[in-house]
Amino acid sequence: MHEKEPIQLDDRITLIDGFDMDIPNRTGTYVIAEEELTLVETGPSPSLKYIKKGLETLGFTLDDVKYVIVTHIHLDHAGGAGLLLQECPNAKVVVHPRGERHLIDPSKLAAGARAIYGDSFSEIYDPIIPISADRLLVKTEGDTLEIGPDCTLKFYNTPGHSKHHFSVYDPVSNGMFTGDTAGVRYEQLIQEGIDLYLPTTSPNHFNPKDMEESIGRFREMNIDRVYFGHFGMTEQPDGALQQVLEWLDIFVEEGEQVMAEGIGYDELASRMLAKVKSHLRTKGIPDEHEIYIILNLDMQISALGIVDYFQKMKQ
Fold first, then answer.
1. CA distance linking residue 31 with residue 29, whole number of Å
2. Can you state the angle between helices 265-282 and 237-261, rounded to 10 degrees?
């Protein structure tokens, strides 16, 4: 088990690294220390040992947890929710209305992920535990959740990455928990002074127009922070969101080209990766940098989503 202290973002919000796929700085759980202790994202079930250790380090017990918010129900964000809830007797899981049935019966969700991850699925995601309906709290556009006398969270429907996605506005920090809608923040590079933010366009709900509109909403709100599902927080939201939009255009354009040529998603993935590599070379990042372990996987999954989108457009 990895040893890592929770990352204190301010006096109320902490980030616990969940070591998704055993990789640091990949997924995490945000802890909002208000009167009603609130977690944002669980990650997959293998991340739970890190969440529990992190909460203990922060001086909290599992009994203290009142709300577990999942921005969407993809397994790398919410796969561990059922297992966590078994140990948090006072907690409810907050979910988008389109995600509720998948938490009650996660079999379809698991089958979709198994198709992508194959033999490594069990190691990455098991176990996936159903959640009873009475422990779910559904929130949608404009809904709120008071978690402290001075903190009422607000929910915004933000499709693009998935249709069952909301983002969560925290008024105290003027920040937005964006899940996957606003892309991925590559902490490994940011630690080296290279800002890299890429869209995540995985199947099977990816829609570039919806993603642009959702990101546009974030920008119009003049937020001070973006809390990313992958991974960490930025206090320069304008630059980060602009970069995601620029890469979105590049990736979709590559997708159009690949579809026109009638070749597969693997070729699209390698072209997308080549674009990112070329960009990072100009920043002094060598081709053998460890970031490419993650980037290679991300481009594979994102290429699948882009091809899926164009195939649906044809139908």
1. 6
2. 140
pTM recorded for the entire structure: 0.97
pLDDT surpassing 90 at residue 155: yes
39: phi then psi, degrees, rounded to nearest 5: -110, 145
High-pLDDT (> 90) share of the chain, %: 90
Average pLDDT of every residue of the chain: 96
CB 69 within 8 A of CB 103: no
Number of neighbours of residue 249 by Cβ within 10 angstroms? 12
Amino acid at 231: F
CB 304 within 8 A of CB 265: yes
Provide φ and ψ at 273, rounded to 5°: -65, -40
Handedness of CA 83, 43, 73, 218 (dihedral sign): positive
Which residue is it, tokens 């693009």? Answer: 160
